[in-house]
User: Fold these one by one.
Assistant:
Number 1:
Amino acid sequence: MSYATEQELSRIDALLMRVLDEEATSDERQELLALADADTRLAELTELRTQLREAVFAWSDDAVEVVGAVMAALQVDDGWDALSDGLRAAFAVEALAEDTFDISELVMAAVAAPTVAAEEPPPEAVFSALHDGELSAERRVEMARELGRDRGALSALNDYADIGRLIREGLDDEARHADLTPVWRGVAPAIGLSDPEEIPGWAPIADAVRDAVAAASVMSAAESAALTNTVMDGIPKPIRELEHADELDELVNPSDLRGWIVRLIGPAAILALGLMLVIPQLWQVPEKDSIEPTPPVAENVQQDDAIEPMSDGAFADAGSGMKVESLETADNVFVQVMQFDDDGPLFLMIDDVDEPSAPDDGASL
Amino acid sequence: MRTKKNLIALCLAALLTSALAPEAAAQQRPRPQQIAQNGPRAGGGSGGKATASDKVQAKVLVVHATEDGKYIDPKLKNLERHLQHLKYSSYRVMTQESVALTKDESEKVSVEGGWDVNITLLSTSGDKARFRVRVSSKKGNLADITVAVARGRTFVVSGPKYNGGILLIPITATF
């Protein structure tokens, strides 16, 4: 038996494709037939060989089927070899046992995937597993040696640590902080505890604490002072102690202060009192009349015309040389004082509300 | 001991002086009643007869301002730029007169619309004159305004409604 080698099968396949594409030369066609005749499997198929020869030299629409049959006869690997081998073995067993049988197990055993070498996980997955504590001790030791030389790996581990910290912080922020105290009060009676606050085994400890406190309460004054000093000595002193307290006493001697007050402030106060009595203008609030060089015209107004003052100095512009010193109006009379420009006139717009209405709306601008 | 005696004397003197000081100060300040009777003091303070230099010329115009058409009277040329701020577009001078006022002297200007404008020269001081302007209508006094004006400057009394507009009364002081 002579089977075509892999290279010959590849060559046959390529030549068949060129035949199908009608691109094969005469030599290629001869080569194809020679390769096919050399294979025992195909040589036994006389009819197929005849069809192949016809297809090679006289192209027809059936050529495709012929090519497929040839490739099948040559058992070109199409991915079903394992299945076919399983089937063949099953039939062989059937022939021996002549009994019903389930071929599925035999087929599945035959087509079982070949052992694939375990792939090395990507470095990121290894780092992640190392960070999560999922590697064995041996692997961790091995990784530790490698990490010392791999700055990228160290950076990746740091990133994983940061990500984990951020995730924990995020979860803490989002987590709802529920007070479960009331729940325990409900659960405790349900599980047979008469007092929810009771802590089993705490009673002896509580008794010891109680005895210690009672003993401390009967300490003598000396013992209490000693305890206090011990406690105070253990507290750090943030404020620097005064090194020369006697100098401070000299500075703040109360008797000396009183002397300075009598010597300095006393005469000054008496002098100020005298000046205030002699010159009342120094302490009296100055009246408006004393400020103005001339008395306000408001005092010169005849008051029998029901004119009421609005506001003194309602308008004053020293820069423009124009000044309204006083302004008084009768009831229902309004005066607008305006000056649009510094060098412009001063407008005194008088509006009498009681004035009969006219087509114009009065003095308003 | 001697110092204490001097101090006591000083305090007694101060008390006596303070008791007399308010009376003296009150005598120095003019009382409102006196101002009303005598009139306010003039800035020059001469107190005698008015001289030519005390006279203040007040040019008084009566202007009819309306929104009909666009017109500025030539006599208002110096005010044209400032009148543009008002809503009116037509300004026609109806009357014009010039009054000479001495201190405390008044002049009444009657304008259309039933208003009277009484102008009193209160005082002159340097380049400024103080006027008292009393505006009245048939029903009585409307406003009493005291205004200080620099030489050559104008103040405008306005308000009476008249013939579809209002009347403006520019008063310019020259002295």
Number 2:
Amino acid sequence: MKRCVAKWLLIFLLLPAWLLAGATKSFAQQAEVVIRMYAGEYTPRARTQSDRWDPPSYLNVLAAEYKRLHPHVTIEFLPEITPQDRYETWLFTQYQAGRGPDLGNQLFSEVNRHYLKGWYVNLKPYLEQPNPYVEGNRRWADIFQPGALATGVAPDGNMYVLPTGVVGTGIYYNKDIFAKAGVEPPETWAEFMEIQRKIQAAGYIPFAFPMAGAKATTNWSLRVIQDMILDSKLPEIKGTGTPVVRTMIEGEGISQKELVRAIKNGTYSAKDPQWQEQLRLLKEWSQYWGPGYLSLDPDAAYRLFVTGRAAMLYDTSSRVKVLESDSLRQFDFGVFDFPRITQESSPYATGISAPAVGGYTGAGSFTVAATTIDKGIVDQVIDWLMFITAPQNYIPMANDLGWYSPGLISLEGIDPKLEPFIRSVENGVFRIESFYRGLTVEYADQFYRVLQEYLTGRKNMDQATDEIQRYMEQAADELIERNGWTDLLEELSR
Amino acid sequence: MASGRVKTAYWFILPTFAALIALKYYPAASAVYHSFFQWDGATAGRFVGLANYAQLFRDEIIHVSAVNVVKFIMGRSFLNLVFPLLAAKLVFHVRHQRAAYLYRVLLTSPIVVPSMVLLLLWKFIYHPYDGLLNQLLDAVGLGSWRRAWLGDFQTALYAVIGIGFPWVTGIGNAGFAFLIYLGGLQSIPKEIFDAAAVDGAVSLRRFFRVELPMIASQLKLILILTIINTMESYVPVMVMTGGGPGVSSMVPGLYLYESAFLYDKFGYASAIGVVMTLILLVVTYISQRSIKSYSEAES
């Protein structure tokens, strides 16, 4: 009897303790959540002595406001890592170790390369939910430009990235040098070559073209030139025979699979004289890049331009605010669009204007790590993301950085200096990817090395294109195997 | 009692062994294992047998980088064997103790500077427009020698080899070499110098007939360390040239890194690593056997 009483007494004493432990645990979950965020160029930091312009800080304001609304949530900003390829390497190791940022920032092309590894949360279901921070919103996806949503779709149809940072590019020019050389911003390629000849004769470096470090400038240039040169051939490359129109979405022209098909069936070939024309034009342009361009990285190229030694620089919308704030600049600058290639310069030109290079590749390309599900904080991370993408928060954040426009439908209050770039992107981006993201990363490096040898005369066109064609076919085979495109193999074997 | 102490000693070194196994031996074994797989580093790999090794021997970039690393090894070996030794000899023969100490401090203190800082500094020195080297050439009337040192196919690799002028301290193990040589010279018994002086061996003759043979083991050590360090090293090339222009400064270590982290070809990168290790073992063995220390020569 006494033993029975003791047993039940023990149970009744332990039961509340067990229940309390559960309550305590849920209270602890409510008590503190730390969201590790990698914000890319938006990473807030204090100005240092070596800064020539004010770094962004608005995310601190948003984090504080969010904390006020959700006292148990703390946002921890991870330090920014540059350049891009070092960041990607760091990110790879972090995700492998299960330590990827809870809310990350990654190019959609990279996410779509890695999504099969299970690193990311599929955002599609969350985009169907209302955003509580946007008045009257019933569906979070409705606040974004359709292009942003379309760009983020992975090959499997899900969405592992929300690419909302719109970037544009343009050719920045030194108005003072242009005045001294007696030239105006060009409309056509032939005019472009002519003004550079005059600028060079006036004793300046016509164009600061970096070919060391990041491959961005070469990539943009070839995207634009290739789009114009292959304009008449794009329907054949796409395989539909119908015109390929320009839109705001990268990759909506010729998809990677269509490009691979075109390589395998020979419609896209480095041995095609029409394809080779882009290399010829680039080589013609390279005589105006100044000596040492192979060892010039983007920062050094910028420095040549901002110190008034080079007349032009091809760069993104991110340079506007930087140039305006930079105390090294002692001249007025302007921006013009990439010139149009006409029949005067190439027999393959159709006279179509240059496409925009840009789109949804700026900072603000958000990913949510799959580890947030295990940590039980995925809903909180999504909520924070909804908060920062609400227009009343995102637009001031974008204005603070001054580099990118948010991919939102409502852009009321956006910095007017970004508008020319947004307008050019709205007119349509390039329709066919160049070496950099068209195929594999390895192909991009192989192409780039051969290109450097061709531009400097170490390889002629035949030698260079023989090698490029070989690498192109290897990359196509690798992509077919990696993506399991057996339907493509069957189609090609018929 | 003694065996009890020995057992205790083994317990104390167990953590070190555990770390060694986890951080050195396991990764090496994993690399050998994965070299037989097509593996992207994240998902399960596919067994491909010797395909990675076959590709390695066909790969043109491997061929070019192998030649480059041989040049690199020869260049750095010469620089690490000659210049730190010259500096050590000069400091060794400084009679004034305080001056000798001061020189030692001045020549070894740059070791504490992070190598990345030095690499970035040299990148600036080689800058085609604002670089110190080109400006110096202009200043002494050699403007025609101006180059894009890191952007020229002919000079890029040699520019990377040559960083760290005057090659006494700083990059690689040069600063360490200076101390090793100095220690070696200081350990030569004074009686040997006295005997050499009696025999008329002074200055250069003393150096080649007495000092150099007596520090042969130090030379062997520095040579082997330089070969290993240079063979594995890729950071200077990565920071300064990225292996370019073209592949003119590509080295196997950097290609291994790119294959793994940029191209998702961890299996292939592992195969490169295994082959590099085997070559290093052979080269190290040959170096060990070919240079005899003084004591080995005596016996």
